[in-house]
Design goal:
Pfam families: ABC_tran (PF00005)
Protein name: Amino acid ABC transporter ATP-binding protein
Shape: globular
InterPro entries: AAA+_ATPase, ABC_ATPase_HisP-typ, ABC_transporter-like_ATP-bd, ABC_transporter-like_CS, MetN_ABC_transporter-like, P-loop_NTPase
Strand order of the largest sheet: 8-9-10-3-11-12
Membrane topology: Peripheral membrane protein
GO molecular function: ATP binding
Bound molecules: adenosine-5'-diphosphate, magnesium ion
Distance between the termini: 42 Å
Helix content: 25-40%
Radius of gyration: 19 Å
């Protein structure tokens, strides 16, 4: 049972008619006795990049998984482009959506995992066309054309017929990013996209994400790459113990952190 009914309606902030692309309000999530998220609020304006930093176990992955409704919320809500994720409002109550509806909503939310999670038995091209064809019902030819365009964009057009195991980790992650883009998502979520990579392969993946940032893709990136955060983030969010400890422009949070916990974390990773 959720207690979402007490939460306010989706707020409209900033632009009079445009809610932030991602809106998280009062989000609580426990696993048994372990309260992992303890009232997280987050706004991500359309076209902006938010980098989430924080120690292991602070709830970063759970936050991303909650945004995608891979986790049910205990309390609070997530809205993407003004649409509640995972629930339907009826009067002052929220009802959980049917799985089919949640799957439809998820097509708007691209997710890139630490370990790529490509389909090993499908070619690179098939990895990109599978969901557009099966989940969105796009014609095969159209899905293939779009997939080739995206592979071009991540510099892997010549690998269309290869299988994931034939690619380096960096190449696999670039394919995973292209696959996420194939559904034309409203937002892309990255959960430590480079932390499984050999150091020499990190740059090529970050370059692809930087390119997306330049073209106005709305993104939330969980990463320990501070240099990347400094260069690309519009907002840096520091999480610890299931709460947002502080957030702001990279220059503030990274160079002049106000909280001891942020300072201690940065001293370890910088
Ligand atoms: P982070 O990504 O910041 O390292 P996580 O969100 O993965 O943190 O995890 C936060 C806490 O939640 C950890 O203590 C972890 O053990 C716990 N946790 C995460 N997922 C589950 C789960 N499915 N069941 C039980 N505990 C979980
Ligand atoms: Mg994590």
């Amino acid at each position: 049972m959720t207690t979402l009914a007490e939460e306010p309606a989706v707020e409209r902030t900033g632009e009079p008619s445009a809610p932030p692309m991602v809106q998280v309000r009062g989000l609580w999530k426990s696993f048994g006795p372990n309260a992992v998220l303890r009232g997280v609020d987050l706004d991500v304006p359309a076209g902006s990049v938010t980098v989430v930093l924080g120690p292991s176990g602070s709830g970063k992955s759970t936050l991303l998984r909650s945004i995608n409704h891979l986790e049910k919320l205990d309390r609070g809500f997530v809205a993407i482009d003004g649409e509640l994720i995972g629930y339907r409002r009826s009067g002052d109550r929220l009802h959980e959506l049917k799985e089919r509806e949640v799957l439809r909503q998820r097509t708007h939310i691209g997710f890139v995992f630490q370990n790529f999670n490509l389909f090993p038995h499908l070619t690179v091209l098939e990895n990109l066309t599978e969901a557009p064809v099966s989940a969105l019902g796009r014609p095969k030819a159209e899905a293939r054309a779009r997939a080739l365009e995206l592979l071009e964009r991540v510099g892997l057009a010549e690998k269309a017929a290869a299988y994931p195991r034939q690619l380096s980790g960096g190449q696999q992650q670039r394919v995973a990013i292209a696959r996420a883009l194939a559904l034309d998502p409203k937002v892309l979520l990255f959960d430590e996209p480079t932390s499984a990579l050999d150091p020499e392969l990190v740059g090529e993946v970050l370059d692809v994400i930087k390119d997306l940032a330049r073209t106005g893709t709305t993104m939330i990136v969980v990463t320990h790459e501070i240099g990347f955060a400094r260069e690309v983030a519009d907002t840096v969010v520091f999480m610890d113990g299931g709460v947002v400890v502080e957030q702001g422009p990279p220059r503030e949070v990274l160079d002049e952190p106000r909280h001891e916990r942020t300072k201690a974390f940065l001293a370890k990773v910088l």
